[in-house]
Write a structure and sequence with these properties.
By secondary structure, chain A is of the alpha/beta class. Chain A folds into two domains: 2-155, Rossmann fold (3-Layer(aba) Sandwich), CATH 3.40.50.970; 172-305, Rossmann fold. Helix content of chain A is 38%, strand content 19%. Chain A contains twelve helices and twelve strands. Chain A has helices at 2-15, 32-37, 49-61, 72-78, 80-89, 117-122, 135-144, 193-206, 224-230, 249-260, 284-291, 295-305, and strands spanning 19-23, 42-44, 65-71, 95-99, 128-130, 152-155, 177-180, 185-189, 211-215, 218-220, 236-244, 268-273. A seven-stranded mixed sheet of chain A has the order 2-1-3-4-6-5-10, with helices on both faces. Chain A has a five-stranded mixed sheet with strand order 7-9-8-11-12, sandwiched between helices. The longest helix of chain A has 14 residues, at 2-15. Chain B is α/β, with parallel strands linked by helices. Chain B has one domain (6-266): Thiamin diphosphate (ThDP)-binding fold, Pyr/PP domains (Rossmann fold), CATH 3.40.50.970. Helices cover 37% and strands 11% of the residues of chain B. Chain B is built from ten helices and five strands; from the N terminus they run H-H-H-E-H-H-E-H-E-H-H-E-H-E-H. Chain B has helices at 6-22, 27-31, 34-44, 68-77, 118-132, 150-161, 182-185, 191-197, 210-218, 257-266, and strands at 59-62, 138-143, 167-173, 201-206, 228-233. Chain B has a five-stranded parallel sheet, sandwiched between helices. In chain B, helix 1 crosses helix 4. In chain B, 47% of the residues are buried. Classes of the chains: A alpha/beta, B alpha/beta. Chains A and B meet through helix 3 and helix 5 of A and helix 5 and helix 6 of B.
């Protein structure tokens, strides 16, 4: 997904002179083609995230569309004030492409895990947060980033090579995609968690339980219309995110329900990362298991909520 | 000691008009800046107050946003907005807040106040000019306390790397930060050497000396391969003897009527 995101930056840059790429100190060879063909719009600025975000703001003030890329935790934790003041307060069209959110960097430990980035970004006015579910969707989304007038936090997580999105669903920032309709329960997911939900739905189907999947690729602004139309029609809603249960997708859904359809708030169950720094290394999958974010748990959570 | 001429006094009277409204404001940090701002807007920057977003304008960022009283004083003087706005300083719907905001105040290029943000943004703007092959310059004014921030030095390295000769930074070196003397809170000396080693052309000057500032600015930028920094030796609270070098006047609140009268008296 990361490769697709960067390939897209190259394609966008080729066709639009406003596109700029800024990396911090990424791996060798990143966007070599852009560096060679458009050197004046390719920047590799070193381990200085605070500066990079400010510099991107300055370029955006002058009409450019900077795509900033580094590891998610350094874009969300390290330069939070720059993101808040330089990008959000001034509402500038800078795109933050964050690598390895959630448990992707499991072997590297808690310093490299971005598990509260959605909560951090969601608290900022004017910020848009997008978590595509696979490389194809990433591609469709990136095309939409050129003319979105606000800053965007793009959350990349590894999800294997599996493509689950469908071109016919299209992509509109702020508009969720109903991957599957269901009458008993509804999974609301974001990013690669949508893949897990689809697996769970299939298994539940064998047990005679009919569940839908609403893929919320845009967490902010949240697609209130879909929530308003879908939640009242099911008996249970399970949210799934590779993110702390504090302040992310599940919280956003609860907040929406509490504000707009409070009589349905009790239907919500949130699956996410517990309120602890990671205690294990291993792999993204082993960490997800450690955190209880598994197809097995997703299924049992839905069954519990449905009293089945 | 540089004596203030009528124009410098008038610009300070604007400051008093604003702090009179709510009897408070960052007075000391504005007064050290007045002459720097005056010379920049009188003799150096290219701009059109009737068209603040004019593409060919030089970009100016007051990175030490708490010095906004000096910025508002000169912007009104240049007719970016009416001096009547002074009477609304920091009122709920005013265009003049306690720190400058882009898109709220005509002539304000960037929202500042959180320190250490101006130079990184200025680097981005200067790069944009280079990419577009525009000749406009980018001027940023920082405080000597502000440059404690690491982001300033990240941006300094980048400005040097990109040979941003269109970027000129001024440091309002008034030797006092909020708590006390800069040499005691966090000694940044040797300042000129620090900037030199970060790849800047360095100038030092008396930041209240109009003729000297004007002479220097005529020569800038001097080196096409480097960004420039001008370290301006200034006095915090300049013009009001009771405020000069007095940390209590960094942010002053609860000003009494006699304080206001006393300030005006200094400018007679």
């Amino acid at each position: 997904m990361r490769k697709k995101a960067l390939d897209s930056v190259y394609t966008l840059a080729k066709n639009d002179e406003r596109v700029i790429f800024i990396g911090s100190d990424l791996g060798p060879g990143v966007l070599e083609n852009m560096k060679n063909e458009m050197p004046e719009r390719f920047f590799m600025e070193g381990v200085s995230e605070q500066h990079i975000v400010g510099m991107a703001a300055g370029l955006a003030m002058e009409g450019f569309i900077p795509y900033v890329n580094t590891i998610a935790t350094f874009l969300s934790r390290r330069c939070f004030e720059q993101v808040a003041m330089d990008l959000c307060l001034q509402d500038l069209p800078v795109r933050l492409i964050s690598n390895g959110a959630g448990g992707v960097y499991a072997p590297l430990g808690p310093t490299h895990l971005a598990v509260e980035d959605i909560a951090i970004m969601r608290a900022l006015p004017n910020m848009t947060i997008v978590c595509p579910c696979d490389a194809d969707e990433m591609n469709r989304f990136m095309l939409k980033t050129l003319d979105w007038p606000h800053p965007i936090y793009i959350r990349l997580a590894k999800g294997g090579d599996k493509i689950i999105s469908n071109e016919s669903a299209g992509f509109e920032i702020g508009k969720s995609i109903l991957m599957k309709n269901g009458k008993d329960g509804l999974f609301i997911t974001t990013g690669v968690m949508t893949q897990l939900a689809l697996q769970a739905v299939e298994k539940l189907e064998h047990e005679g339980i009919n569940c839908g999947v609403l893929h919320m690729h845009t967490i902010k602004p949240i697609d209130e219309n879909s929530l308003f139309n879908l939640i009242p029609n099911v008996k249970a809603v399970v949210t799934i995110e590779e993110h702390t249960r504090i302040g992310g997708l599940g919280t956003a859904i609860l907040e929406f329900c509490s504000d707009s359809i409070p009589e349905h708030t009790h239907k919500i169950f949130r699956i996410g990362i517990p309120d602890k720094f990671a205690e294990e290394y291993g792999s993204q999958n082993s960490l997800l298991e450690h955190w209880g974010i598994t197809v097995h748990n997703i299924i049992s959570s839905m069954k519990n909520k449905l009293n089945k | 000691m540089t004596k203030l001429d009528e124009r410098s006094k008038d610009l300070r009277k604007n400051v008093i008009k604003m702090v009179e409204v709510d009897k408070r404001g960052h007075i000391g940090p504005a007064l050290s800046l007045i002459e720097i701002m005056r010379v920049l807007f009188d003799s150096f920057l290219t701009f059109d107050a009737s068209n603040p977003k004019w593409e060919k304008r030089d970009r100016f960022i007051l990175s030490k946003g708490h010095g906004c009283l000096a910025l508002y004083s000169i912007l009104a003087d240049k007719n970016y907005f009416s001096k009547n706005e002074f009477n609304n300083f920091c009122k709920p719907t005013s265009i003049l807040g306690g720190h400058p905001e882009r898109d709220k105040t005509p002539g304000v290029e960037a929202s500042t106040g959180a320190l250490g943000h101006g130079l990184p943004m200025a680097v981005g703007i200067a790069l944009a000019a280079k990419i577009k092959k525009e000749t406009n310059r980018v001027v940023v004014v920082m405080g000597d306390g502000e440059i404690n921030e690491g982001s300033v030095w990240e941006a300094a390295m980048s400005a040097s790397k990109h040979k941003l000769s269109n970027l000129i930074a001024f440091i309002d070196h008034n030797k006092l930060q909020s708590y006390g003397k800069t040499t005691e809170v966090l000694d940044m000396s040797p300042l000129p050497e620090k900037w030199q080693s970060f790849g800047f052309n360095v100038h030092e000057i008396d930041g209240h000396n109009i003729e000297a500032l004007e002479e220097l600015l005529k020569t800038l930028p001097v080196n096409i391969e480097k960004p420039t920094v001008v370290i301006c030796h200034t006095i915090k609270g300049k013009g009001f003897p009771f405020a000069e070098g007095n940390p209590n006047w960094h942010h002053k609140s609860g000003l009494k009527e006699e304080d206001i009268l006393e300030m005006y008296k200094c400018l007679e």
